[in-house]
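Notes, p. 3: input format for complexes.
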Amino acid sequence: MSTTPTIGVLALQGDVREHVKALADAGAQARPVRRPEELAEVDGLVIPGGESTTMSKLAVVFGMLEPLRAFVKAGRPVYGTCAGMIMVAGKLLDAREDQETLGGVDMIVRRNAFGRQNESFEAAVEVAGIPGGPVEGVFIRAPWVESIGASVDVLATYGGHTVAVRQGNVLATSFHPELTGDHRIHAFFVDMVRAAA
Ligand code: GLN
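Output follows (197 residues plus glutamine):
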């Protein structure tokens, strides 16, 4: 496999452009993915931040829900940020009733968990596996991980709450590294995609 993997950014809704740029800076070929045919062409997928209820609805409308679930189930690498973390959760708290998720990480995620106290904030977060000191965590109406199954690794906590996890080839963060100039987490994901290929 080439050392430049092709990584898609789910482009139904959310901050797609920032992820495309961060992935390109981190050494991947990055492109937006909207349709099942486009999903079939990528080695890995980022699910951006945005609004998970809208993303879930649009995934159904665009016929992407089952292809996305199959992608995750096949063990293809996926990285979800914020709303994307919500999308890869097995279960949700404070979700809309008909909100769909893809699964991928055996965890319960609480939507808008930090939001009720503080709509949006930044904090230094130490992330396991990311060398060079803490990353700048940008939290925007961010979820946290309320509980995890035995095969999930916690990579970061903030204020006593889990904010970054990995299970197999699925990575998720409550915060938005694509909004900072620091692309170490994207580089970590690009390496995950290389290793999986
Ligand atoms: N609160 C949003 C949701 O539930 C996520 C916010 C974000 O992605 N910045 O989808």
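The pocket of glutamine is lined by residues 49-52, 82-83, 86, 111-112, 140-141 (CB under 6 Å).
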